Amino acid sequence: MAERARALLRDEALDAAEELLVDRGFRGFHMRDLALRLGISRQTLYNEFPGKQGLASALVLRLTSRFLDEIERALAREDDLHAAWVAAVRTAIDAASGDPLLKALLTGDGSDGVLPLLTTESEPVVQAASERAGAYLLRRWSHFDPADVAVAAEVATRLTISHIVLPLHPADVVAEQIATVVERFLIHP
After folding, report:
1. Domain extent for 183
2. How many domains, the chain?
């Protein structure tokens, strides 16, 4: 029962934090405001999230999970490996470009500690996305070598995140490039 109450509080805190971050941006967001909105003490909030950075990490992981659900649906709509990866990458880029939370987290001068969650400290995001994409690929195309699939999924994930953080080309071009890399790696090792 206590675990269920804690999970509900965590979800409620993440929902409220998302609203506050979208409204105020990361620099304008304060843990005390979130605690007030939830009607709990700051200490209770800090027991669940180790500060503003810990809360931001939890939000990024939850956002990643949402994106991965959309990406998996995009992969499932395609029978061809190349087309599946084009759809997956395009879905990730489109979802990221239209997500108000991601925009709130990425805007600013970079000194507020959020950008590293998608760059230098992105290991949890890369790991979650790579594992889920790799598992999907192996369920769908079981003849591929699991080690090769793991590499391809990680490379595709890193390239997609890189484009989301610093887009240099149109999304369609990037999706095609990443799908080509994945397909060539898996089919022509």
Report:
1. 2-187
2. 1
The tens digit of pLDDT for each residue in 167-180 reads 889 999 999 999 99
Which amino acid is residue 104, in one-letter code?
A
Nearest to 27, CA basis, from 56, 50, 49: 56
pTM over 0.70: yes
Q: Could you tell me if 20 and 36 are in contact, meaning their C-beta atoms sit under 8 angstroms apart?
A: no
DSSP H helices in 77-167: 81-98, 100-106, 123-140, 146-165
Determine the distance from the C-alpha atom of residue 84 to the mean position of all C-alpha atoms in its chain, rounded to a whole number: 19
Instruction: State how far the Cα of 110 lies from the Cα of 102, in Å rounded to an integer.
Output: 14
Please state, in angstroms and rounded to a whole number, the distance separating the CA atoms of residues 85 and 140. Answer: 12
**Residue 12 maps to which CATH number?**
1.10.357.10
